[in-house]
Every structure is written in structure tokens, then in C-alpha cells.
Amino acid sequence: MSTSPPASGRLADAYDLVIFDLDGVIYLSDKAVPGAVDAVQRLHEQGRSIAYATNNASRRAAEVADLLRGLGVPAEAEEVLTSAAAAARRLADRLEPGARVLVVGAEALRQEVFDCGLTPVSSADDQPVAVVQGYGRDVGWVILAEAALAVRAGALWIATNTDRTLPSPRGALPGNGSLVAVLRTALDREPDEVIGKPEAVLFEEAVKREAAGRPVVVGDRLDTDIEGAVRAGLDSLLVLTGVSQPRDLVAAEPHRRPTYVAKDLAGLFDDVETLAISAEGTGWHVTDGRLDGHGDAMAALRTICAAAWAGTDVSDIRGATDEATTALRELGI
């Protein structure tokens, strides 16, 4: 599997598998991100291999595929990998058939546990040997208290993911990581295992399914999608339609830096030279903490990132011209 980015050509043509995150990339809640449906349809029409890897454990693969088709994306359940299914499979590998598992999360997670031959329960009094925790809109104090009691009694504790927030049209909402933090605080310990991104499990499964030799990950979060791609040794594209924004990207640590950045999924059809984080050929340059040159705001962002990642202090960057100042304002930097 190749790990070095191509030197030229459209990004979509340079890879044999595109692995999409969902929340913040394809949709926000149940509404399509502008331009996302057209971009994915275009890939399908070109015969590109596609996978969807989501940390959201509140839907099963078939439900996710139904949602995508409802938005106009021609998706199949076999293309979807969820942290709920992966967590249930991991439990089944570690536990005896029929073992009792206390489920904290949505009905989708409960069904995944059941389908893996385990017994879902809701009380510590049932003496579960494991607790699995995933996002669910109705998760509250009662089930969290049962989980705390079970873990304190010795149950294995697995989290589907630790995303602190979920993107939505109204702004960032508490994610499973915020709910995991409740138990972390109560128990004064970490989960025994986290399954979803930034762990490489979902990406590795997607690559294996498609026998892909050159996959690329597309996500909206530096701390899950992009860090997960780095851990898996895969190239990645950050789109600015969800959680992570330009300021976050500029300040990103090495293990959370994408290969490319684009405003949205239309970037899949741009040239890799345009999308790559670089100070060369962008029309912009950073000198003495000032941005100068000309071009669009995204090109300016790539230049600023290249400077920051090379060690230049851009914490108080200013525009040397009105055009530069406008680009910085557009980026929120």
C-alpha cells in the first residue's frame, strides 16, 4: 500500500479507494452537506471504490445506507463501517458466547451486541462481564450509574469512540467522548479499549474489504479522522464542513496533519498540487508574521499551514495588503 502522495493529477484519480467520514462530511444530523451528494455521485459514476467509516454508534450499517440513499447517495450497507459493529465484534472475540454485556448507547449498539452472540443487559445487577459505551441521544444518569457500578465490579469497559462533540446545523453538540468523560471522572480511569477513530480499526477493515493499494481518508476532524489516517499510514483530505476549522489546522500537531485540505468535497476533483499543504506555487507567502501575495483564501490557508508547520510563529499573523486581510478574515484567522 502506497503512503507517498502523488505529484500531480486530480485527487480522485490518484487513489483506488476513498474512505469517507459521515458526520460533518456527507451530512450534518440528517441533512446533506452542500455539494456532498453531487461529489459522491460523481465518484460512483466514475466507478470509484467508496467506503464510509463512522464513529457514530447510533445507527447500524443498513440504517446508514438507507439514510445516504434518502439524501441521494447510491450507498450499500456493505460500504459502511460503524464503530458499533466493530466494538461488538471485538467483544465477541474476547468473551465467551452468550456473555452478558451492559450496553450504554442506542438500540443500534444493543442489536450489534446481540447479533454477535452476546447477551445485552441494562443493569449491573445482571453481573455483566463487559460494558460497551457508544453515543445515544437518550443516554442518561441511570444507565451511566449502572455502567459505573459494573466497571467498578470488574467489568471490561470498551468505548466505541471518544469524539467530544458531534457536528450539527446548530453547532457542535456533546458526543460520546463527553459521555465517556462522565464515567472517566466517576471511575478515575480510562476505558480499557477505544475502537473507533483515531484507532486504525475501521480504516484497516475498509482497506481489507476492497483490497485497496492506494486509499485516501476524507474527514472533518483532526483528532479522529486525520489522526486515524496518520496512524494507519494513509493519505488524508481535511474538509472544512464540520468540526475542525482553519485555526485548528494551523495549530495541528504532526500526528494530526492532513496531506490535503479543501473547503468541501468539490476538492476531490481538484489537482493534488493545489490541495497539498505547501508554501510553493500558492500565490501567497508569509514573512515576518505577515501574509502577502494574492489568490483565494484556501491557498492562503495552505501557505500559512506550511509556514506554521515549519516552525514560523503565525499566532498573530496580519495581512500585508487588503487582499491578504480579507483572506485572513474569511478563514477566521
From TrEMBL:
Residues 290-332 form the GCN5-related N-acetyltransferase-like domain. It comes from the Bacteria. Pfam families: GNAT_like, Hydrolase_6, Hydrolase_like. GO terms for molecular function: phosphatase activity. InterPro entries: GNAT-like (IPR041065), HAD-like_sf (IPR036412), HAD-SF_hydro_IIA (IPR006357), HAD_sf (IPR023214). GO terms for cellular component: cytoplasm. NCBIfam families: HAD-SF-IIA (TIGR01460). This is Haloacid Dehalogenase Superfamily Class (Subfamily) IIA.
